[in-house]
Each structure stands twice: as C-alpha cells, then as structure tokens.
Fold Putative transposase.
Amino acid sequence: MEAERREKIVHNYLENPLWSASRLAKKLKFPRNTVWRVIKRYKEILTTIRKPQANRRSGTVDQNLRSKILKTIKGNPNLSDRDLARKFGATHSTVRRTRLREGIKSYRASKQSNRTIKQNSLIKTRARKLYDQVLTKFDGCLLMDDETYVKADFGQIPGQTFYLATGRGDVPAKFKFVFADKFARKFMIWQGICSCGKKTKVFVTNKTMTSELYQKECLQKRILPFIRSHDHPVMFWPDLASCHYSKVVREWYAEKGVLFVPKNLNPPNCPQFRPIEKYWAIMKRRLKAKGKVVKDINQMTTWWNKIAKTMDEEDVRRLMSRVKGKNREFLRNREE
C-alpha cells in the first residue's frame, strides 16, 4: 500500500513538475508533508523503492507475540495497551501497532442502566405501548419533569477538574486538589422541560419530596400554569418516583384535566428516553465551572436560574427531539 502511494505521488509529480506539494496533495487527497517527503526523496535517489535500513527488523511482529496479544484481547477487551505490554514484556508501541494492524480500535464504554429482572420484563412492553399510543399519535408538546441533587459547594459536584502546570507540584493545593466533604450539604432541584423548548420555573428545597410537597409546589404552582400558557395540547411525562403517581397526585391530574403518561406506559429505569437527564448533566457541569459556594435556597435558586439562561429554547428543543428516535432505536435493537 505504501509503495503504491509513493508511485502514485511520483507519477503525478512527473506529469505536473511545476505543481507545488500542496497542490498535488489536494488533488491526491494525501497529507502535504507525505507528498513533500516522497518527492524530495525521489529527487535524491531517483526511485520510489526503499532500501532496507541497517539494524532494522524486517517483516511483521513476532507471530507468537501477536497470537498471545490477540487471544488476550479477545478474552478481556478492557485491558489497555500498557497492560498488555507489561503482561508480555513488550513495548507499548509494539502492542498498539499489532492491534491496529488487526483492525482493533479503542472505544469508550457507555453507561448502561443496571436493571432488575422485573424491570427488564416491563421495559419492552411499556416502551412499545409508549411508542404506539403516545409518541406516534399525540400531536402536541411533551413535558418532562424530574428531580436531582446539587451540592452547595459547586466545586464538589462530580466531574473532572484539570489544572495547568509545568509539574505536579508547581501549583498551590487549592488548584491541585478537590477537597470533598464526607457529608456535603446539598439541595434538591426540581424542574420541567418541554419539547417546545421552554422550561418551567425551578423549585429548590432541602426537604424530601413527598406527594403533598410535589402537588403543592411542583404541580399546582409550576406545572399547571406552564401547561395553561400553551395554546395547544401538552402531555405531561412524570418520572416514576412514587410521589409522582400517588393516589393524591393522580386525583389532582384528573381534577385539573392534565394529560399525563400512565404508569403502565412509563418504562422503568430508561434514562435514554428522558433527555432531562442530559439537561441535568449540562447544568451541573456549568455550575461546577463557576466554583461557587451557596449558603441558602435563595442563592441556589439564583445561580440555577442564571445558568439555566445559558440553555436557550433551541438547546432544550434539540434535547427533547431525540425522545421518539431513542425509543424506536431501543425497540429495534430488542427485536433483533
């Protein structure tokens, strides 16, 4: 392959001797530096054939080592190149080159919900019903809500923190370490996001969410006015928390005429169907970057609203637009 590429570069160079390396590279779709080096070498030795270099091993990697590496990767693909190099007494570059020649690439493992047996039996049935009865038939907005916890010290919010230095010990400790309290103070955040791109008002508390608190603060004061502000139907899709489907709350839905996703259509433990989980992650990452410490609910509310403004309607709409596709993809994979 390398020899063919060198011959192709030289052939085009001889046909167009006045062309620059950049122009040839653009025509051949090769890196400019590669084209330049091949032409330079051709001018020096007048051939594209490489001479064997002294003290350089010819051929491929030791076949015995290659077999061991491939067999080990097949048995445990979580091993890194350095792990394999230490295991077989080889260099890191040798292991990497061996697996790349075999077409073995490195991929990041994605998170997957650890569902119970009962959840696995429910999820496919509910996902199919949700897709057929709601996502493909309902012509209106989809409103989704959830709760999450945020630490009062934004610097302690989980996530990677980096610092720049010429060496590990060249910066003060406050930049080098993330000091985490064992029992850090935190607030519970509730909010809803809609497929039209709008967000409900946020509710911040340091209490546990109960049916009464959920009905009074979230539904009555925030969800109901939000739904009534729309001039088209809105389907409310609550989380599967027990307080969201309690008897008191279901009676409230019926009394106020709120359309909602029934519990028997709501798939359990499926964060990929709920873009609000991604919304939480984005908000927490941006709060963490501020590194502030809030003292009370009012300060937490102020900071949350300030960061929420950085998520405009188009961002929220883009998140919510993936619900139907994610559900369809999940069902397709389950049926294969």
